[in-house]
Design brief:
This protein has two domains: 215 residues, 3-Layer(bba) Sandwich (FAD/NAD(P)-binding domain), CATH 3.50.50.60; 142 residues, 3-Layer(bba) Sandwich (FAD/NAD(P)-binding domain). Helix 2 crosses helix 8. Helix content is 26%, strand content 23%. The chain has ten helices and 21 strands. The protein has a seven-stranded mixed β-sheet with strand order 7-6-5-2-1-8-18. A four-stranded parallel β-sheet has the order 12-11-10-16. The protein has a three-stranded antiparallel β-sheet with strand order 13-14-15, with no helix packed on it. The site of flavin-adenine dinucleotide (FAD) has 37 residues, from helix 2, strand 2, helix 3, strand 5 and helix 8.
Length: 421
Amino acid sequence: MLYAGAETPTGPSAQMEKNVVILGGSYGGISTAHYLLKHVIPVLPDKNSYRVVLVSPSSQAMCRQACPRALLSDTMFPQEKLFVGISGLFNQYPKGCFRFIHGAATEFDPVNRNISIALKDGVSTTTRVDFYALVIATGASTPSPLLGLNQDEHALRQNWATFRAALPHAKSIIISGGGPSGVETAGELGEFLNGRAGWFNPIAPGPKVQIMLVTTGSRILPLLAASAVKKAEKMLADVGVTILKNTKITVVSPLGTGTDHVADKVTLTMESGETMNADLYIPATGTMPNTGFIPKDLLTADGRVKCSRGFRVDEAGSRVYAVGDVASSIKQPAVHVILKAIPILCANMKRDLLTDAGVSAAEDQLFVEDSHANQMVPIGRSKGVGTAMGYSLPSFLVWLVKGRDYWMWTTGSIWSGKHWS
Ligand SMILES: Cc1cc2nc3c(=O)[nH]c(=O)nc-3n(C[C@H](O)[C@H](O)[C@H](O)COP(=O)(O)OP(=O)(O)OC[C@H]3O[C@@H](n4cnc5c(N)ncnc54)[C@H](O)[C@@H]3O)c2cc1C
């Protein structure tokens, strides 16, 4: 369905206040808000009539990339850098031009141009916000709630606490997924629980905790060269992780283990009919877009928001956009890709807002994603593998750039908006 008839409500209140609503308080949403407040709203005629409204079920943003290590213990990272309050990040802008709504979007009505929101303020339960422009940046959730803000910061911390309490009693752990999240999680757990084999401390006669990484693929880390994969396998073996390839898990019993219950014993049934037991199970098998509140006809078959290379959701009416992991025009779910997308999105928003204000504006911009695989995968606290621009990276460089602190050296300027100064 094309929601072409949908237009901005008219009348005095709509004239006075134009809500630019952004859904999602992470890399896509927070960066868009800063960029608009710094570079777009100030140049619009009647700039005081616009207000950026950021909606997020979590009151804190977090360095999601750090989850494979952060889930082990609060001592792994300074917590005040790992989690950062969202509303305070916007105190730097003139009063009245920004509003934070602590809640989750539950319905997007493209015809009447409003968003229903389940509030987390402890008082009211729902509200509805009319939008003049809308940016959907609700990202994607992981099957394991240990690897991101699937709900909010309290739920994430609670899941970590439950998992950590079970860890000292675990003798066996299974992680499914041969991509970077699975490999990083296995590597971190392996080093934390078993230590790393070296010249003077081979892990013998066997690791303290049996850790197994299970993948449906014939190899782990499909984006990396075969030589890098071989190195990764050795690094994993050195921390006591074994790899089971070409294996599909078909049944998880009890149902919900690893997804709803992070510290339960599990029995996994493989496609072959064989079963495996483990004390803990972490599914790290990709992500699901957070789009349950969006009309189905605006979504692609894989559940993301259908948008153009200019990030417009053309079928949803005017001034509706999507960016980040939720957007169909972004192929590689990665922070560096989102940071390249934000200026393109905001240039097109600026053009649309100026045009609607009767001012002629610059040409449209189209996003062209780097086709090279760029990926760094730390394996424990001192090693890792990676590729950039088609070249394999030495372990030391992967440690220096990512493995040292899982990108926390970059998040300060992203959350504060300095990145866009
Ligand atoms: C374990 C792991 C490790 C990763 N490591 C790296 C890495 O090393 N390098 C890299 O570049 N990328 C990495 N990524 C990918 C990177 O984290 C994502 O590309 C990035 O987080 C996407 O940002 P986003 O803003 O699009 O969405 P997300 O980070 O998914 O955030 C979406 C936000 O929307 C909110 N939200 C959800 N539903 C609603 C709703 N209904 N209403 C309002 N708000 C909502 C969520 O609470 C969340 O705050 C990793 C991902 C994972 C899972």
